[in-house]
Design goal:
The complex is a heterodimer of chains A (about 110) and B (about 110). Chain A is built from no helices and eleven strands. Chain B contains no helices and eleven strands. Classes of the chains: A mainly beta (about 110), B mainly beta (about 110). The interface between A and B is medium-sized, with 26 and 28 residues.
Chain lengths: ~110, ~110
């Protein structure tokens, strides 16, 4: 079936380093992708999104890259800080399927001071 | 605080009891989604509303589950005859329009004992 998955379940980085979290998706019809950050005991928090007509989008300290050819999505976090420690989920959706999000399993990012 | 409010934050119930959760969306958001999340997994779609109309229900939503959104504002999710397998975090998300930023509430953590 259709799925969104993550290559790395855990990622440990040193404070100040850059982090890259990867995600693979299988539904070529997906046209909107979102990265969420979830801290323990809290709901997912929107980080950045990208539509299928783009291959790169930048935010504050974060960049999302979309490679539709290989159905791959990545989140880059620059100068990672301890406050970035959380579980990160990618999610995909298809416009004509009501906007429901399909989430991957998540990657836990741990930032060492 | 995203502006999406869920109540209660935690609920412990005995197997077989009924429970009801509430979600108050951001006021101008006419689309409202319910998701369920178990430990270590990404959220899974349950159902969604556009205004007061329930437009889609997942196969995960058994006949023991019912959701309403009277008047297109707050929404309730009821689980009848709870089972231990219903233990999860129940998340509500709202968005202004399809494929725009979805804001999640803090969730209701249900434990069925």
């Amino acid at each position: 079936g259709e799925s969104v998955g993550l290559h790395l379940p855990t990622l440990s980085v040193q404070e100040g380093d850059n982090s890259i979290i990867n995600c693979a998706y299988s539904n070529s019809a997906s046209d909107y992708f979102i990265w969420y950050k979830q801290e323990s005991g809290k709901g997912p928090q929107f980080i950045i999104d990208i539509r299928s007509n783009m291959d790169k989008r930048q935010g504050q300290r974060v960049t999302v890259l979309l490679n539709k050819t290989v159905k791959h999505l990545s989140l880059q976090i620059a100068a990672t800080q301890p406050g970035d420690s959380a579980v990160y989920f990618c999610a995909e959706t298809v416009y004509n399927q009501g906007g429901k999000l399909i989430f991957g399993q998540g990657t836990e990012l741990s930032v060492k001071p | 605080d995203t502006g999406v409010s869920q109540d209660p934050r935690h609920k412990i119930t005995k197997r077989g009891q009924n429970v009801t959760f509430r979600c108050d969306p951001i006021s101008e958001h006419n689309r409202l989604y319910w998701y369920r999340q178990t430990l270590g997994q990404g959220p899974e779609f349950l159902t969604y509303f556009q205004n007061e109309a329930q437009l889609e229900k997942s196969r995960l939503l058994s006949d023991r589950f019912s959701a309403e959104r009277p008047k297109g504002s707050f929404s309730t999710l009821e689980i009848q005859r709870t089972e231990q397998g219903d233990s999860a975090m129940y998340l509500c998300a709202t968005e202004r329009a399809m494929n725009t930023e979805a804001f999640f509430g803090q969730g209701t953590r249900l434990t069925v004992v």
